[in-house]
Specification:
The chain is built from 5 helices and 8 strands, in the order βββαααββαβββα. Helix content is 32%, strand content 15%. The chain has 176 residues and is of the alpha/beta class. It has an 8-stranded mixed sheet, with helices on both faces.
């Protein structure tokens, strides 16, 4: 099974989302495709505020991570600049995937599933083994596979306070 989505084929940080942007050129993706500068903005223009929120929350999350464990914020002066010039591009080590997680123990890849509903659908379809420990109604973790389930990447569901909580959980995965 191939990973399908946007980003660096050699990613170390993967976010899984249930849907693709509603643009013809992305409907037949069969692999991980690096975005180019300006492409996130083009998706935002064509697909609206929902996708803008996904990309913004992704960039804000990466930018909020402890530099001791994750170096994403060292590439740009602001999260906005990081989003526009690095996120999901070649050599970014980031991916936004529309396929199911391929969990390989001991591999240095962090996996984040956007939304409890998406995680449950992956489990119910047999595409994800349920090794999750639910911390509350919104966050779950599988430390062995470096997998976290969090609220959907939207400002209301994954507020700044929840981004900080997710950043703390991601830091705990690096310490393990």
């Amino acid at each position: 099974m191939n990973n399908i989505g946007f980003g660096d084929n050699d990613f170390s940080f993967a976010v899984y989302i249930a849907n693709k942007p509603n643009m013809l050129e992305y409907q037949s993706l069969r692999e991980v495709t690096s975005l180019v500068e300006g492409e996130i903005n083009a998706i935002n223009q064509a697909c609206g505020n929902g996708w803008r929120k996904v990309f913004n929350v992704y960039a804000k999350l990466l930018y909020s991570l402890d530099k001791k464990y994750y170096n994403f914020s060292t590439f740009a002066p602001t999260w906005q600049n990081y989003r526009d010039k690095h996120l999901l591009q070649a050599q970014s080590k980031t991916a936004l995937l529309f396929s199911a997680p391929q969990l390989i123990p001991n591999k240095e890849v962090v996996h984040i599933i956007c939304g409890k509903g998406h995680a449950k659908a992956l489990i119910n379809s047999g595409k994800l083994v349920d090794n999750l420990i639910w911390l509350d109604d919104e966050f779950a973790i599988d430390s062995e596979n470096k997998l976290i389930v969090c609220p959907y990447f939207d400002y209301r569901q994954l507020s700044n306070i929840k981004i900080e909580r997710l950043a703390g959980l991601l830091q705990s995965l690096k310490i393990i």
